[in-house]
Amino acid sequence: MFSVTVRDHLMVAHSFHGEVFGPAQKLHGATYLVDATFQRPELDGDNLVIDMGLAAEAVREIVGGLSYRNLDDEPDFAGTNTTTEFLAKVIADRLAARIHDGALGPGARGLTGIGVRLHESHIAWADYHRSL
User: Fold this and answer.
1) Which residues, given as ranges, of the chain have pLDDT below 50?
2) Is-contact 30 120, C-beta < 8 A?
3) pTM
4) Which of 21, 48, 92, 109 is deepest in the core (most CB within 10 A)?
């Protein structure tokens, strides 16, 4: 399996509901390092997994649409705990939609999987992987 990873970052504010979250129930900020990994079993005709420029641009647009926002105020996330795990899935699903729409170029048609890793700190992160 071949893979290419591109990286960006995401800065948000949010709060969580439920005793399990302790002090994170209060409004707080989070800065994530975002790694998006694109996979395919064989390289395309140009010996690429994906056009890295288009992949980086798509990740930048998606995380840019979430950055500098209080996620508690976003209608898409009403009543949802926007945990690291949840946000990894949101980003992966939005990338998958762009791939299916052709926004990442014709070479992206051969992709079979995508994974998103959100680094919450240097010692903790969460991953979400999905098939395409």
Assistant:
1) none
2) yes
3) 0.95
4) 92
